[in-house]
Design brief:
Layout (H helix, E strand, L loop, with lengths): L18 H6 L15 E6 L5 E7 L1 H5 L3 E6 L8 E2 L6 H4 L2 E2 L6 E2 L5 E7 L2 H10 L1 E6 L11 H10 L2
């Protein structure tokens, strides 16, 4: 037997107040913001699921037209942020650096940021950042690691 819930919003059409501006083209998006002296950032991300970071070459990106800064973990203080998942008590206990420094742990992990005078120059300069990565065996088993593997993981931590 299936129960039907008739209270609340589940199973009912809801009037969404944000729809008319979006459907008529009068909506405003972050990409539409254009402020005087605005700068743009482009994040350089790991293309490898698990790798030791041997080097981040930023010289060409720093010389590119319109580039104001190129930042990697070496340029930042030792700060930690929660992992990039839903905020939970467990996630608060696992902190990571905003930019990977020694090891990239997943595809898309941020390793550098390029800041430039417009979004196109930032994107072009980000493509000039060269990552030297030594691919490691990906971690595919969610079970706790063996004692030997735990030792390897500890050495690789940033």
């Amino acid at each position: 037997m299936t129960a039907t819930i008739t209270t609340g919003v589940i199973g009912r059409s809801i009037l969404r107040t944000e729809d008319p501006p979006l459907l008529t083209g009068s909506g405003s998006f972050v990409d539409d913001v254009d402020r005087p002296d605005q700068v743009w950032a482009r994040v350089v991300r790991s293309q490898t699921a698990h790798a030791r970071i041997l080097g981040i070459r930023t010289e060409a990106a720093k010389r590119a037209s319109g580039v104001l800064a190129v930042v990697s973990a070496q340029d930042l203080p030792d700060v930690r942020i929660p992992i990039r998942l839903l905020a939970t008590h467990e996630a608060e206990q696992v902190l990571q650096a905003p930019l990977a420094s020694d090891v990239a742990r997943y595809v898309g992990e941020p390793v550098a940021v390029v800041v430039a005078t417009n979004q196109y120059l930032a994107e072009d300069a980000a493509e000039a950042v060269q990552l030297e990565l030594d691919a490691l065996e990906p971690v595919l088993d969610p079970r706790p690691p063996s004692r030997a593997r735990r030792a390897c993981t500890r050495v690789a931590r940033t």
